[in-house]
Amino acid sequence: MIDLAYAVGSLVLAGGCLAVAYRLALSEPVRGAASRVLLVAVAAGLVLAVIFPEGPGPGTEIHPWATALVVTGLPCAAWMLARGRAPHMLWWVLRAASVSAVLLLAVMLAARPGSVLSDLLVGTAPMDLLERALVVVELVLVPLMAFAVFRPPAQPAPENHHDTRPLNSLARPSLHGFDQQ
């Protein structure tokens, strides 16, 4: 049952990545090009991770590399999408989520068995917790990017063109530029 949930979740996430990439191609073809390429690569990595499951069998090396592509590609795509944007809360949240994913990945790699720092952490409980936190942050990145890309563009503030003449001068024109009273 867990394998089915993993497969369905991965395919839904891949579909979300492709939808965001397609929307970027329509709305920002030049600015969103790097994010778009990474999102398509992440979607391919998710599909490959489903086709070639972890464990013994054909393609045992494909699953770890596909997973590595996903966990590094999504935060990079989110960061590149959010960089240089106007100060809006959504872009700040997207940046914070991508930075937290990168930090979690760095800590997870540093604490991995065989690493120099792995002896500082006792047992596998911290690794499991780090992996789960990383998966949650990665799962949040795609909907955040989708919300950022699919939201309508901000409307510019209407310009204030008030006529400074008094109301009675608007009703009847003056011959000499002065109001007649």
Based on the model shown, name its key terms:
181 residues, mainly alpha, 66% helix, globular
Structure description:
- It is a single chain.
- The protein is mainly alpha-helical and 181 residues long.
- The N and C termini lie far apart (86 Å).
- It contains 6 helices and no strands.
- Helix 1 packs parallel to helix 5 and helix 3 packs across helix 5.
- It has one domain.
- This is DUF998 domain-containing protein.
- Keywords: Membrane, Transmembrane, Transmembrane helix.
- The structure class reads mainly alpha
Instruction: Estimate nothing, just give the exact number of structural domains.
Output: 1
Largest sheet: none
Tell me the Rg in angstroms. 26 Å
What is the approximate shape?
Answer: globular
Overall number of strands: 0
Mean pLDDT: 82
Helix content percent band: 55-70%
List the secondary-structure elements in sequence, H or E: HHHHHH
Question: Whole-Å distance between the termini?
Answer: 86 Å
Pick out the low-confidence regions. none
> Could you tell me the strand content as a percent range?
under 5%
**How many separate helices?**
6
Protein name: DUF998 domain-containing protein
Pfam families: DUF998
Region (Disordered): 157-181
Transmembrane segments: 6-26, 33-52, 64-82, 89-109, 129-150
Summarize the model shown:
The chain is 66% helix and 0% strand.
Strand-helix topology:
Blueprint (H helix, E strand, L loop, with lengths): L1 H26 L5 H19 L10 H21 L6 H22 L14 H26 L16 H5 L10
Protein name: DUF998 domain-containing protein
InterPro entries: DUF998
Keywords: Membrane, Transmembrane, Transmembrane helix
